[in-house]
Sequence to fold (208 residues):
Amino acid sequence: MDYKALSRKHFDNQAAYYDVKATTTVSKFPKMCYAFAEKELRRYKTERLLDLGCGTGEMIRLLRERHPHMMLWGLDLSSEMIRIAKEKQIPDTAFCVGDAEFLPYPDQFFDVVLCMQSFHHYPNPEGVLEEVYRVLRPGGRFLLYDMYVKNRWIRALENRFLLKWLHMGDVHTYGRREICRLMEEQGFFQVYWHKIHPVMFFCKGRKS
Fold:
């Protein structure tokens, strides 16, 4: 199954009304993460930030308003999402269409990489984490917000059957131990996990 093609098609189709239909699952949960992420970012001195899977750029728009000093980048697989993000003409930002496994940025470039509700779409999570680690400066942080199913049996059924049946590009939902292990294996330390909603978690790690 070509998960990237499915994700691209799904979000290209969602892009036109992604911002206005906040009650739909596809846009509701990412938008619920914005306040959590903005609050977390106040704890760090951040000059350069990448929003990985940025969608229509709403999180970057919020950050531009509240953190005018930040230099902001956004990357998404969906060309339609990026088109809408660029149309917002958010000052001093750079959006591009791209693949999370092949980030078009130099080594040690960002202070923070933010990823909200897109990680479960990545068919090669190890490759994505390797790229995130590469583009972070030493001491930089990866902030991950994603969907969560507490019961491991239900999560297993979802991963094996439901996500494939939906054909929306969803690949895998992660439990606490699984996502923490993935991040630690890619070199992140001070890995911290917290449930922020019955169906969402927050996990962060720091580059050594």
Q: What stands out?
A: Residues 59 and 106 are 23 Å apart (CA to CA). The chain is about 40% helix and 25% strand.
